[in-house]
Write a structure and sequence with these properties.
Elements lengths: L6 H8 L3 H19 L3 H9 L21 H6 L12 E6 L9 E5 H17 L7 E4 L8 H13 L2 E3 L6 H11 L3 E4 L1 H13 L11 E4 L13 H10 L2 E8 L4 E4 L7 E2 L5 E6 L12 E7 L10 E7 L1 E2 L11 E2 L4 E2 L4 E3 L2 E3 L1 H9 L6 E8 L5 E8 L7 H12 L4 E5 L1 H10 L8 E3 L4
Length: 436
């Protein structure tokens, strides 16, 4: 049965009180669990635990169900299917950045749901039907985000320029010809476009672009302030930066509003928890693993899916007028957590420190195991000048991180080639050799 979505109703729903939002979430959660019961995986769990779905009346009650991990899906993917495979309309694949990619099926209803989720996200970021958007994200290679953005913008009524990735010169030509109000893309690439323009006598700050909607790389820190990369973006374009976060498995995404205090949760589409290492739900504002139940998914409904990402949840009303919970910036990935000389680090902390050094054009990290349960970290940076020494970089990292990992300087082309050849759909900045 085709689901109908209304933007007007969705916007009013977000202005309702937090209690009203949660009441609707729980109602939709029960329907979602009833549908998930159609899958062999969740039917076995619900029956074995003798759970009565109708007795789930709060978020707290959801904890009676166990967490779902990537490994659970990898073992037997089809045990998570709730409809016959002939109803699948699209099969996307995860990026594979932290392991083997997973195939995630979408039905026609799932694609409609996906599009409307992005319609709300773009509206939240100030995009309107009369706007033109340059989409610097691929729509091919089994990548779902590009399709989601495109479908959401079309549903909103905006004009989309499907530019794709690569070639800053080509992107700038399209900016001049189509005069977009916003660009969607990976932050580092959007910065490359502005740098190319400046080096070739153009002024990005005088372009029509007023919004930069980012994907794939954090542009905000845990305290919600901009990272160095985020600040550079806003300065180089004279445009507002919005962060977007989602996973292929979730079939849903979060996006910043103008208040920039976390990505809004859409109560009809998703329910978010933050848990500690033992799976206990944490209070607002405390960092932990993001666990998501994407409501209303038809083909592959998941319950309490562990994303592997570290963030915080905020439930105080937002200054934008919406009262929905918000997920803060991603602070790291559990699979990439490092232990170095008694200090816990995440790669993103290292990259944010490197971003503060203007001469560093690109970088990646290699990690190996040490016999003393400590990680051996080597930071490889791409620099095409001798202005910055590895000693200065090491000292800067020590000042920011309190520890001093090894630093190696190579030519930018060598570093970029390694990041491209390391595998996966994205440039690989974290190369984990532990256990190799």
């Amino acid at each position: 049965m085709k689901t109908k979505f209304s933007l007007d109703k969705a916007l009013k729903r977000r202005e309702a009180s937090l209690v009203e939002c949660q009441e609707e979430q729980i109602s939709r959660l029960r329907k979602h669990l009833a549908h998930a019961y159609l899958t062999p995986y969740y039917r076995t769990i619900i029956d074995s635990l003798r759970i009565n779905i109708e007795e789930i009346t709060s978020r707290k009650d959801l904890t009676c169900l166990p967490l779902t991990s990537r490994n659970d899906i990898e073992k037997q993917p089809d045990s998570f299917y709730a409809v016959p495979e002939e109803l699948f309309a699209d099969i996307a694949f995860t990026s594979g950045s932290t392991g083997r990619s997973l195939a995630i099926p979408y039905t026609l209803n799932d694609l409609e749901r996906l599009a409307f989720n992005e319609t709300i996200n773009f509206y939240c970021a100030g995009v309107r039907p009369e706007d033109t958007i340059l989409l610097c994200v691929t729509l091919d290679r089994c990548f779902i985000a590009g399709l989601a953005y495109y479908s959401g913008l079309v549903k909103l009524g905006a004009a989309v320029v499907r530019s794709g990735v690569g070639h800053p010169e080509r992107q700038w030509e399209l900016i001049q010809r189509t005069k977009p109000n916003a660009i969607v893309g990976v932050p580092s690439f959007l910065l490359n476009i502005s740098r190319w323009a400046e080096e070739n006598g153009f002024e990005p700050v005088k372009s029509t672009v007023t919004k930069l909607i980012t994907i794939g790389e954090p542009v905000r820190k845990a305290d919600l302030t901009l990272t160095t990369l985020g600040s550079k973006l806003e300065e180089s374009w004279d445009a507002k930066v919005f962060s977007s976060y989602g996973l292929t498995e979730l079939q849903t995404a979060f996006s910043d509003c103008y208040e920039s205090c976390g990505g809004h949760e859409h109560p009809e589409f998703i329910l978010t928890e933050i848990v500690d290492e033992d799976g206990n739900v944490l209070p607002d504002g405390q960092p932990g693993e993001v666990v998501v139940t994407p409501l209303g998914v038809e083909g592959m409904p998941l319950v309490r899916f562990k994303t592997g990402d570290i963030a915080r949840l905020y439930t105080k009303p937002c200054g934008c007028g919406w009262n929905t919970p918000r997920v803060g910036p991603i602070e790291g990935r559990l699979a990439q957590r490092l232990k170095f000389k008694g200090t816990t680090l995440y790669p993103e902390m290292i990259f944010q420190a490197l971003d503060e050094i203007k001469q560093v054009d690109c970088s990646y990290i290699e990690v190996r195991s040490f016999f003393d349960l400590s990680d051996d970290i080597k930071v490889i940076v791409g620099i095409d000048s001798d202005v910055v020494t590895k000693e200065r970089i090491s000292e800067h990292l020590q000042a920011r991180l309190r520890v001093k990992p090894k630093v190696e300087i190579k030519e930018k082309s060598q570093v970029m080639e390694k990041m491209k050849s390391a595998g996966g759909r994205k440039l690989k900045r974290f190369i984990d050799l532990r256990g190799s």
